[in-house]
Amino acid sequence: MAKCTRIDYHKDGSIRAKGQTVDDVLTGCWEWFRKDGTIMRSGFFENGKQVGEWTTYDSKGKVYKVTKMPR
Known about the structure:
By secondary structure, the protein is mainly β. It has one domain. The protein contains no helices and 6 strands. Strand 5 (49-57) and strand 6 form a beta hairpin. It has strands spanning 3-9, 15-22, 25-33, 39-46, 49-57, 63-69.
C-alpha cells in the first residue's frame, strides 16, 4: 500500500488541488484552488468516494455552501 501526497497544478503552475492517495486512489482531505490561490472546494474521500461534508467557497474564500455526502 503506497500512501503519498498528490499535488495537481493549473497550466500557469499554481496549485489546482492537493490531497492524499493510497495506491493512486483519493483518500482523506482534499482541497481545490482557483488560479489566484483562493480555496474553491474541500472535502474528504474514502476509497475514492466523496464522504462527509464538502465545502464550496466563494471567490474570496468564504464558505458559500456545505454539502453532506452519504457514507
